[in-house]
Amino acid sequence: MERSRFLRWLAAAPLLAAAVMAPSRGEAQTPLRFAWDWAPQGYHAIWALAEERGFFRDAGLRVQQDRGYGSGDTITKVATGAYDVGFADINALVQFNARNPQQRVIAVAMVFDSNPAAVVTLRRTGIRTAADLAGRNLGAPEGESSRVLFPVFARAAGIDPASIRWTSMTASLRESMLATGQVEAITGLQQSAVFGLRAAGVPASEIVSLPYAAAGVDLYGHGVITSAAFAERNPEAVRGFVRATLQGLKAALADPAAGMAAMRKREALFDPALEGERFAMTRDVAILTPNVRRTGFGALELDRMRRLVAINAEVNRIENPPAAETLFSTDFLPPQADRMP
């Protein structure tokens, strides 16, 4: 009899252990403030699903998600502690950390493995290739990452960046100024510019994209960032947030419609059809790359980070750029087996 009870207890032990280890719905959760890069777009479904499906809860986190106002703004807010984690273009970390070594911000997981920066124009301009850009009037906000990186694209494409005439505007006016003919092309993230034009009524057949990556510009794009100080003080919170992000990413890729529905619950004006197309483009140009299929989601590689630092230091004329090793950490990533597509 005693032996029988012992065997039943032994069989049930793994289930009991799992129940003890799993966070309960009533368990206290760590609050975390998270800033997006921009206004709600399709790819933000990653974090809408992380919340809706309980990935944050399972990581012991209660996450406040807020829209962003550009990567530079998000990085500054994370550096100063206004937010704990953010989503931003990690190219901007090179200049920020060079100027603010005491407020160092680091990347802890990549989401856009390939930088989706592009020149976007309309067929009526006659621009079909990078060579056609010479002498043209391009528009973008000053300091916007794709504009800052344009000389790198120009060099890779074999054109003189000095031949370009620039018109500056706010990000909210960029697509409308192209649509109304005030500029001949714009720079920006491909999925943002293309679908910004679509939302403005421009037919998809009229839009021409010249991606930087297609010219051979091999740069990371947006990733999850936090301050080095916050990561040191709260390693488990950062590790949990990264894990939940990658779970949300996989969920959004597996069921884009559910991701768009989750975003619609958060944002009443969210257009699931349009944003579903935007997410599909983001997936194809920035997320599901050959490199990701080899290394898994979230990966950060030292050689690519060194190239990123060198390129950004050159175009921004940074005399003492930070070492690549100080701009990122892979310590918070789940095992590679858990990150494979």
Question: What gyration radius follows from the Cα positions, in whole Å?
Answer: 22 Å
CATH class wording of the largest domain = Alpha Beta
Largest sheet: 5 strands, mixed
Q: Note the total helix count.
A: 16
Low-confidence stretches: 1-25
In order across it, which strands form the biggest sheet? 2-1-3-10-4
Number of domains: 2
Name the beta content range: 5-15%
Query: What's the architecture of the largest domain, going by CATH?
Result: 3-Layer(aba) Sandwich
Helix proportion range: 40-55%
Judged by helices, strands and strand pairing, the structural class is: alpha/beta
Integer average pLDDT? 92
Molecular shape: globular
CATH superfamily of the largest domain: Periplasmic binding protein-like II
CATH T-level fold name of the largest domain: D-Maltodextrin-Binding Protein, domain 2
H/E series: HEHHEHEHEEEHHEHEHEEHHHHHHH
Distance between the termini: 49 Å
Offer a concise description of the structure.
This protein has 16 helices and ten strands.
What does this structure look like?
The chain is of the alpha/beta class and 341 residues long. The protein folds into two domains: 28-114 and 220-339, D-Maltodextrin-Binding Protein, domain 2 (3-Layer(aba) Sandwich), CATH 3.40.190.10; 117-215, D-Maltodextrin-Binding Protein, domain 2 (3-Layer(aba) Sandwich). It is 46% helix and 15% strand. It contains 16 helices and ten strands. The protein has helices spanning 2-21, 45-52, 55-58, 71-80, 92-99, 145-148, 150-157, 174-179, 190-199, 228-233, 235-254, 256-266, 272-287, 290-295, 302-316, 336-339, and strands at 30-35, 61-66, 85-89, 105-110, 117-122, 137-139, 165-167, 185-189, 207-211, 222-227. Strands 2-1-3-10-4 form a five-stranded mixed β-sheet, sandwiched between helices. Helix 9 (190-199) packs antiparallel against helix 13 and helix 11 packs across helix 12. The radius of gyration is 22 Å and the shape is globular. The N and C termini lie far apart (49 Å). 44% of the residues are buried. Mean pLDDT is 92; it is low at 1-25.
